[in-house]
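Milestone 3.1: sequence recovery, worked example.
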């Protein structure tokens, strides 16, 4: 790092707060992910100093040529002038069904494999339908910590929600905690991510079986967010049709909808194309209360021709063919989709060491009885600081993150750090800034 840049760090707290005020952020620690992005953009522009950006889960790798070439070819053939079917193009639906069979060892018919404008839209469409299947239920149970925007979606819809931090209820302890919510009769849906954003814990087969069994018992629908598909690098799931497979609740209940994103695993975030995979049993299940809002009581039909039709009337035609091509290559065994994203695990290993060597602690440090894996996210704290104050202080040193507060975590002292935007050449810069931070906060 150039000396001229170092002379500007730490930034003046007054300067940071003035820039935050211009964005309407009276308290930086309460800011959303996108608000932190906007603030850091302003600081970088005003200072000329490039940040170590850990606030947003933006893919840091190039997308595979298989996908981009398929999309380019489709556009050259004039597909941009044709509306895609709301339920998805045949190629993508078929390849998704195949991908789920070969990498999760689960059977989902192609009719239930539905493209959405990113997993966020998939989740929103699920809330719109699943939370309306029973007029006597109230909404979603979030197994936290989790992606903050899902709760924003629930709030926008006017639904109720419940949540708990799973970290203190691992293994068989999860059963009693989860059932304490389900037995109220108020839970329509259960949502979690696996691997987990932000803690990076990975649910065990025992825990998935507990969730699945109780979902069946209490007639709740599990929304399993697989945004980080295959990114528990302790297990290599990259060989199609061969164990180990991506762990999933689909092994233990028919009451599931899988949300499979192309953003991280295929670095295809900019095209906003994901899959909502509805179980075969659930797709054709009848819920009479759906007719309060939709033309039919069938769940699958209501999701596609009710919710998704109203939201976007389909997903971009060309990008559907791109994702279909990537799924096909993975299924054919001609493209190992796990190999390139292992880079995230290596970055996490190096970055975590830089933090812990300089007095920081890993908040979610174990996964059951093992050290937390190295992956797309990790969590940090610094003794004597709340997460909100720590975020403000780190920003002064050219390092950005988000607070665990906004993820539903029960650990207010922590921050979530994402590794994806931190390039190899920035790792020494991170180390130097952390050393300076520690020196100033002894």
């Amino acid at each position: 790092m150039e000396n001229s840049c170092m002379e500007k760090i730490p930034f003046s707290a007054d300067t940071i707060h003035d820039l935050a005020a211009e964005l309407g952020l009276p308290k930086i620690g309460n800011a959303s992910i996108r608000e932190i992005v906007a603030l850091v953009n302003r600081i970088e522009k005003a200072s000329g100093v490039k940040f170590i950006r850990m606030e947003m889960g933006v893919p840091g790798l190039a997308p595979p040529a298989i996908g981009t070439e398929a999309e380019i070819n489709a556009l050259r053939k004039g597909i941009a002038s044709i509306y895609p079917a709301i339920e998805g193009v045949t190629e993508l639906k078929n390849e998704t069904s195949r991908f789920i069979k070969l990498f999760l060892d689960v059977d989902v018919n192609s009719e239930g494999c539905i493209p959405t404008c990113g997993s966020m839209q998939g989740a929103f469409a699920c809330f719109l339908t699943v939370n309306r299947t029973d007029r006597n239920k109230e909404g979603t149970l979030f197994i936290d910590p989790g992606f903050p925007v899902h709760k924003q979606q629930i709030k926008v819809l006017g639904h109720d929600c419940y949540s708990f931090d799973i970290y203190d209820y691992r293994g068989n302890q999860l059963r009693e905690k989860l059932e304490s919510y389900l037995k109220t009769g108020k839970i329509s849906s259960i949502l979690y991510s696996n691997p987990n954003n932000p803690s990076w814990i990975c649910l065990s087969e025992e825990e998935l079986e507990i969730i699945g069994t109780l979902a069946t018992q209490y007639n709740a629908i599990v929304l399993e967010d697989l945004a980080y598909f295959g990114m528990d690098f302790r297990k290599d799931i990259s060989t199609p049709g061969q164990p180990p497979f991506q762990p999933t609740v689909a092994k233990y209940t028919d009451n599931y909808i899988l949300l499979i994103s192309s953003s991280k695993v295929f670095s295809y975030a900019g095209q906003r194309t994901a899959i909502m995979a509805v179980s075969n049993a659930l797709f054709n299940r009848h819920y009479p209360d759906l007719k309060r809002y939709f033309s039919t009581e069938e769940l699958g039909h209501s999701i596609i021709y009710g919710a998704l039709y109203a939201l976007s009337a389909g997903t971009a035609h060309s990008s559907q063919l791109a994702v279909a091509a990537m799924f096909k290559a993975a299924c054919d065994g001609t493209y190992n989709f796990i190999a390139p994203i292992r880079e995230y695990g290596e970055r996490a290993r190096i970055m975590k060491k830089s933090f812990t060597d300089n007095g920081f602690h890993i908040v979610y440090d174990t996964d059951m009885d093992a050290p937390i894996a190295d992956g797309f996210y990790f969590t940090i704290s610094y003794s004597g600081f709340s997460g909100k104050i720590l975020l403000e202080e780190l920003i002064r040193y050219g390092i950005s993150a988000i607070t665990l507060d906004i993820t539903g975590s029960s650990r207010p002292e922590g921050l979530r750090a994402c590794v994806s935007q931190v390039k190899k050449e920035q790792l020494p810069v991170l180390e130097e800034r952390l050393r300076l931070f520690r020196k100033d906060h002894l």
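The first helix runs from residue 3 to 6. Residues 1-6 have pLDDT under 50 and may be disordered.
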